[in-house]
Amino acid sequence: MLKQILSKLPRKSSKSDPLDCAGSDSSNNATNFGNEIRRSNSGNATLNGLNVVKRMSSAIFPASVTAGMEVVEPYLSFKDVSNAEKQNLFVSKLNLCCVVVDFTDPDKNHVENDLKRQTLIELVDFVSSGSARFTESAIAAMCKMCAINLFRVFPPKSRSNCTGGETEDEEPMFDPAWSHLQIVYELLLRFISYSSLDAKVAKKYIDHSFILRLLDLFDSEDPRERDCLKTILHRIYGKFMVHRPFLRKAVSNIIYRFVFETERHNGIAELLEIFGSVISGFALPLKEEHKIFLWRALIPLHKPKSVGIYHQQLTYCVAQFLEKEPKLASTVIRGLLKYWPVTNSQKELMFLSELEEVLEMSNMVEFQKIMVPLFRRIACCLNSSHFQVAERAHFLWNNEHILNLVTHNRQVIVPLIIPALERNTKNHWNQAVLNLTLNVRKMFCEMDEELVLACQGKFEEEDLKSSVAAEKRRTTWERLETAAGYQPVIGNISILVKPATCSVTC
């Protein structure tokens, strides 16, 4: 009787039988992106590749998502199935691409690699065609496939340089699996950029966990991968408004860790490129959260030794803030002075270039708040023994806006600068710097000759006092050396000569 009852129940087609082998795992959550699926290599690995994927497909999606799905063989072409079956074929092909293979040996899994690559290209073409309609099962399958292929732990840093990620002198390192990773990135980009993608459904799978794992990939040593990630993350920021605060906070945490802990990260420049565009879209007046990002993340990024790698992007981000709110200029300049390099001339050149750009965007009120400490630092740069630093500091007066600010505040600034110019005329070794010094001094004379003469007179007076004090110290030390003289040693006894009475004044 039992056999008769069971024989009358409807049976699934033979195509779906392999899926039932993994039915016990169908309760796994689709957002568990960290569980990668890997296959061992055997003599018939290529022959069994498709069957392995079919057995795993029910483990990839939750039962609620896969219920009622019709299984379509993944090696069919989209042209060979009806429009109604294309969605299921799309999911089946995504399942096929969930198998991660080893690319370290180019002769290993050669046929299987080609099969997977061809399938990925078919998926990209299908999404690019505009005929795709992403159901929740397709969205889950896409995110799962991308997570399995992209999210990975990078090997320990192989670079000997401990000052940061890549430097300007180092050759970039390329991932051997890039031929497949590139297509996965392109597929993910087209998927996120798809106009009819339902963001309300997709955000359940492109969630905080997915975004954090995506951000981790920015530490890749392959510049091609970081460039793809930059575009994808920017699209995610634009598509999923609900994730924007979290994304900004996550990037801030990466910067904090880089600045204050490791000083090693390969993707700071790319992250700043994204935020250069993000900052330009901030609404006015700026929220306190955005100002905190400037104070606590962007300005401290001037501290690391490897700032040269991302300085151009950092300067652009700071400039975007100042365009939005010029009154932040004094805050930025204070930050530059706080992290000003003392022994690194190349960083000093970058700081001077950024300083000129910031001053060009400053108004009179903000300039007056910081002009005294600022021009004390510029005076030190004018006297730098590194001729490029000294030259760059002199070139600040070629900027008309800065010259205008100095002219209106010359009573404060000229007394700070003239002593530095006078010291250059007497002591600097580089002829080009000497010529620039004479030109700047001439410019100040044309601006306010009476003030310049007064400052020069005061400098000469102070210089004379300093010379007299130095000579006095030298004479005093000579007297002390004479007064502390000893008789030659006789045996093991030294005889102290009673010094003549002399007055020693300092």
Care to give the gist of this entry?
The chain has 506 residues and is mainly α.
Main features:
62% helix; 506 residues; 0% strand
Account of the 3D structure:
Among the domains are: 15-154 and 174-201, no CATH class; 207-324. The protein has helices at 2-8, 17-20, 45-60, 63-66, 83-96, 110-128, 136-150, 178-193, 199-202, 208-216, 223-239, 244-262, 268-280, 288-298, 311-324, 329-338, 345-360, 364-382, 387-394, 400-408, 410-427, 431-483. Helices cover 62% and strands 0% of the residues. The model is unreliable at 1-69 and 159-166 (pLDDT under 50). It is elongated and about 100 Å long.
Set down the secondary structure blueprint.
Layout: H1 2-8, H2 17-20, H3 45-60, H4 63-66, H5 83-96, H6 110-128, H7 136-150, H8 178-193, H9 199-202, H10 208-216, H11 223-239, H12 244-262, H13 268-280, H14 288-298, H15 311-324, H16 329-338, H17 345-360, H18 364-382, H19 387-394, H20 400-408, H21 410-427, H22 431-483
Helix pairs in contact: 5-6, 5-7, 6-8, 7-8, 8-11, 10-12, 11-13, 13-15, 15-17, 16-17, 16-18, 17-19, 18-19, 18-21, 19-22, 20-21, 21-22
Protein name: Serine/threonine protein phosphatase 2A regulatory subunit
Main location: cytoplasm
GO molecular function, one term: protein phosphatase regulator activity
